[in-house]
């Protein structure tokens, strides 16, 4: 079954390019992004891993840890990292999980439980559903799930935008409208009554309809 927003992200222990880790322990009190790949040495994923490395400082600035996963062995990941650096200008500067027994992919609902065997005998198309992005909060709950086809590279700038919204709305009783960017106006959450809202926003709000209450983004 696919994981849903609000569920606890499955914990696991796995080998990575930065050693063995226990996932929840590795996250600690941070936010985290786990993004998965169907196989090493695939063209679209090569561009994604390189681009993520180039913008990792933006995730660091937001207190977000980044980790990748691919259904192959650690030694393959290490060889792939050299190709990524050569072709994209940046080698992965975050751990890449080895998942040769498909345990993590299955736990996260990306492959059926019946999948088995040697990952080297499987093609990228066999693993095409291992193309997810999970954003996980410090409470270890899943905050976002994005699923991409193999032919479409992921937009990690959008992932950053969503993280900005998630972090803002986790601290303030607001929601962000369509195409919101950092610094734009926000919407008072529907769970907040008008009386409660006046305590926080004594100057009031713009209200084109009673159920839409627009205010400046909180500091």
What does this 3D model show about the protein?
With 219 residues, the chain is an alpha+beta fold. The protein has two domains: 13-152, 3-Layer(aba) Sandwich (Glutaredoxin); 172-215, Antioxidant, Horf6, Chain A, domain 2. Helix content is 31%, strand content 22%. The protein has six helices and eleven strands. It has helices spanning 23-27, 43-61, 74-88, 103-107, 156-171, 194-200, and strands at 13-16, 19-22, 31-37, 64-70, 96-98, 132-136, 142-147, 174-175, 186-188, 206-209, 212-215. A five-stranded mixed sheet has the order 5-4-3-6-7, covered by helices on one side. Strands 8-9-11-10 form a four-stranded antiparallel sheet, covered by helices on one side. Strand 3, helix 2 (43-61) and strand 4 (64-70) form a beta-alpha-beta unit. Helix 2 (43-61) crosses helix 3 (74-88). It is elongated.
Give a brief outline of the structure.
With 219 residues, the chain is α+β, with helices and mostly antiparallel strands. The chain has six helices and eleven strands. The chain has helices at 23-27, 43-61, 74-88, 103-107, 156-171, 194-200, and strands spanning 13-16, 19-22, 31-37, 64-70, 96-98, 132-136, 142-147, 174-175, 186-188, 206-209, 212-215.
């Amino acid at each position: 079954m696919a994981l849903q927003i609000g569920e606890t992200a499955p914990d696991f222990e796995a080998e990575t390019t930065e050693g063995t880790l226990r996932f929840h322990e590795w996250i600690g009190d941070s936010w985290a992004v786990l993004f998965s790949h169907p196989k090493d040495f695939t063209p679209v994923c090569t561009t994604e891993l390189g681009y993520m490395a180039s913008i990792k400082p933006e995730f660091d600035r937001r207190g977000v840890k980044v980790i990748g996963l691919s259904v192959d062995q650690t030694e393959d990941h290490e060889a792939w990292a050299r190709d990524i650096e050569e072709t994209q200008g940046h080698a992965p500067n975050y751990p890449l999980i080895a998942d040769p027994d498909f345990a993590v992919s299955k736990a996260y609902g990306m492959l059926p439980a019946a999948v088995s065997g040697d990952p080297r005998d499987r093609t990228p198309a066999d693993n095409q559903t291992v193309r997810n992005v999970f954003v996980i909060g410090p409470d270890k709950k899943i905050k976002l799930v994005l699923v991409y086809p193999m032919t479409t590279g992921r937009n990690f700038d959008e992932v950053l935008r969503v993280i900005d919204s998630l972090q803002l709305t986790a601290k303030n009783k607001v929601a962000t409208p369509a195409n919101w960017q950092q610094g734009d106006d926000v919407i008072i959450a529907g769970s907040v009554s008008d009386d409660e809202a006046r305590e926080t926003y004594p100057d009031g709000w713009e209200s084109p309809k009673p159920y839409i209450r627009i205010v400046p983004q909180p500091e």
